[in-house]
Amino acid sequence: MEDPEEPQGTHFWHMCFLVHNSRGFVAEERAGHWTPPQGMTRFDAMQVIRGRVVEASPDLENSALLSFDIQLNQI
User: Fold this and answer.
1) CA 64 to chain centre
2) What is the pTM of this model?
3) How does 25-47 read in b/e, with b if 16+ C-beta sit within 10 Å?
């Protein structure tokens, strides 16, 4: 999802999904970096990122989102 040649976004995010498929229930993780617009809420960020993740991985469309975290991308 992220291009390693691109500069990293201001925030790091992580999502964990529970998916039901032919193997049963499986946990799948996605993570990346992103620069949200000024003033965006965490809830709005979650909605936007989840939409992009599902667009890239359509098998996650009907999955349950188990966890979401977004933090500044610095140590």
Assistant:
1) 13
2) 0.86
3) eeebebebbbebeeeeeeeebbe
Asked whether 50 and 65 are in contact (CB, 8 A), the reply is yes
Token pair 């009907």: residue:
62
pLDDT at 3 (0 to 100): 65
Helices (H), the chain: 42-56
Positions in the chain whose pLDDT score sits under 50: none
- How many Å apart are CA 48 and CA 31, to the nearest integer? 14
The candidate with the shortest Cα–Cα distance to 73, out of 25, 16, 32, 18, is 32
- Contacts of residue 29, defined as CB under 8 A and 6 or more positions apart, other chains included, come to 14, 15, 16, 17
Amino acid at 19: V
* Cβ proximity of 71 and 31 under 8 Å: no
Token pair for 6: 């691109």
